[in-house]
Amino acid sequence: MDGITVYQLKSHMEEYYEPLKRKLREGSYEPTPVKRVAIPKADGSKRYLGIPCVLDRVVQQAILQVIEPIIDPYFSDNSYGFRKGRSAHQAIKKAENLL
Fold first, then answer.
1. Which residue(s) pair with 35 in the sheet?
2. d(CA 54, CA 12)
3. Is this model's pTM higher than 0.90 or not?
4. pLDDT tens, 46-57?
5. Residue 40: beta bridge partners?
């Protein structure tokens, strides 16, 4: 969406880091619209994905790194989806053990 590749991000951040940091602190940062991509499914229908630009992904990851250690201890021990160090295979094994 923004035309910046992962490889160009470092030089882009060197130029825009301070304004980005200011916007994040002020709460005025607004992510750019996501790119909508259709992925064909086996049955002929399509699954739509929203792909954020590189900078928005960096911001998302930065926020995650700050809040994850704070909120993760409050999640159920039986929660496996999108959690660091947990996988679908572990969830299946846990379900099998509970059965």
1. 51
2. 11
3. no
4. 999 998 988 898
5. 46
